[in-house]
Amino acid sequence: MVDSAVVRKWVLDANDGIISTTGIVQGFAGAGANDETVLFAAMTLMITGGLSLAGAAYAEAAQDRAAELAIIEEEERQLALSPDEERAEVRDHYVRRGLDPELADQVADQLMRSDPLGASLEVEYGMLEGAAPATKPWGVAFRGFFAFVSGALPLTAAVVFLPDDWRLPISLLVVIVSLTVTGLVSARAGTGHPVKAVARSITIGLFIAVLAYLAGNIFEVIDQFIPQIDIDGDG
């Protein structure tokens, strides 16, 4: 079964790819850029955006992993110095969870015999993986990269294959479909009402698209009134 937290993170990263690419494509289109320029901008954003997100995700995950390793090391030290105190903490944890003291004693004895480090880490820090840190920096980085690319790719592909006259309406349709898919996936993972999730994502995506297109138009208008600089000095 896929972890809902992983799905939520994928949706966020994919939405980032969708919305970022939407802003670039609509902004360049609004500024009157040619097909090659729009395509180059979309592909560049897809690659660099994915790499940037992957790098940030890796750095964050590596820091989390280092913290987990430090906790594991400290817990190993505590088990070596005072195993009885660690056993008592495990027992008290299950008493607080509702077991009667005698049963909690039996549970603590069995857990401390089979996996004392895992039991201590679980009851004190909620680390279900025990001595193996759950955070995998490279896995998180690759997941972030492919999530961003999966969000950016449909719109980038639309830029490649669509003629200029159809680019604006069809690209908006691609954005709506993409955000609908991520919204439904998010809701399926138990992260909210599907209609609200989809409506929220589409509203944000279309707002960014319209704003970027208008900004591109404004830039084009301003550019027409800026005197062209003669680099060669020929007047």
Automatic annotation (TrEMBL):
The chain crosses the membrane at residues 38-59, 140-162, 168-185, 197-215. The keyword Cytoplasm does not apply. It comes from the Bacteria. InterPro entries: Ccc1_fam. It is a multi-pass membrane protein. Keywords: Membrane, Transmembrane, Transmembrane helix. It is found in: Endomembrane system. It holds the Pfam family VIT1. Signal peptide: none annotated. The keyword Transmembrane applies. PANTHER family: FE(2+)/MN(2+) TRANSPORTER PCL1 (PTHR31851). This is VIT family protein. It comes from Microbacterium aoyamense. The lineage of its organism: Bacteria, Bacillati, Actinomycetota, Actinomycetes, Micrococcales.
